[in-house]
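>> received
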Amino acid sequence: MWFNSFDFAVFFVIVLGLYWLFQRWRRHGLRVQNLMLLAASYFFYGYWDWRFLSLILISTVVDYVAGLRMQAAIDEGGPDKDRRKRRWVTASIVTNLGLLGFFKYFNFFAGSFEAAFGATGEWLRLDIVLPVGISFYTFQTMSYTIDIYRERMKPVRGLGGFLDFALFVAFFPQLVAGPIERASSLLPQIRAQRRFSLDQFGDGLHLIFWGLVKKVFVADNLAPYVDEIFAAGANPTGFAIIAGVWMFAFQIYCDFSGYSNIARGCAKCMGIDIRVNFKHPYISTNPREFWQRWHITLSTWLRDYLYIPLGGNRQGKAKTYRNLSITMLLGGLWHGAQWNFVFWGAYHGAVLMLHRALRPVLERVRVPLPGAARKAWHLVKMLFMFHVVCLGWLFFRAQDHSAGEIWELVRRAFTLHGAVDWSLARPLVIYAVPLLLVDLAQIAAGREELHRVRPVPAWAKCVAYSIFFYLFAFQGATAESFIYFQF
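>> returned
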């Protein structure tokens, strides 16, 4: 059930109506509002394939029990406290990563084994269907047990606590493609009493409308051009590859940030705040800043639960670079069980290491510039970083190509192989430029998007939303699945 489908619109209207109808109802000490929302979330996920609900239930039960057992070890203390905690957090991690590894990576590693040893016939492969959103909810639920292990939060208890935790794991707005929430942020909101707020409802509608414009008007209209350029067997020129990468940069940004906007909007309509996942990533001037603006909930998850536990930057340069490499390689592999995602992760790891190595030198040679020159230099750094990111997007998008074909695409792009087709500039002007103008207006305002929108008069909002509706209803392409659903 895609966010940009009629089915979801009907589903959400019904759920929202029941949600606020039940806000004060309780049965046997349980909040009917949360029970209804849990049932709706399971229906939403089961709409794809009801069999995969069993995986969510396994993760939910294992992590709920693990949290209780670790808290029992903490409360009882004793010399074996740490050993008992490690046993249960290990059970949580092994269960979640085991499910993720089997469904997402078994065939990838089996195929790599066959290729390495010259096996034929795909005798190790299994007919496995990748469950939608498994990469997201496994990371989300693991954060709960890891934070209890670190004694940063306490587990929920009882039947009501279990059902609230189950809702935290399966909350439908961000279940399939994030943002990846932390239990310390989302779970207290689920357990708290929520009352209807017209301001929050208005904020939610704004986010939903703008997310649909980004997805349906920008991303889905750019998708056919990108698909044609990067199709298996295509023979694109160097200029076509560059134009295709530019279009894909805006496609994937609008596709994923559009989903995140809609997810945040749906949650806000229900009085729940989930985290911002994108903050204008293409205005970044260095690799570190880019990852502070792009897919923020994943990058901070990897930082807090992988990079820092590995040692972060506390053990000297060599180990810092090692930790960066491991984190970005696994971050790339998280996106998909294909070598192009491994190359993409390795590339960004190398870029981060190079920036870290050069940063002291760049800071020493920094020259004060007058106002206009400083702004021009800032723009140059933004454009340079945008193209650094775009080179990574070339690896990311080329999932239908072998390693040799990917390097051939890179060679053609850098040598501008072949003729120039100026018609490829048209979709960029029509679909990407309006997005850039809106983003620039938001950046110039210097405030978070919703803070700018709230004081706008009602008539102006009606005009803006009418334009939004026209763009995604009459100028949008045929509804496409969200890119990150495959992860």
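>> Residues 199-486 form one domain.
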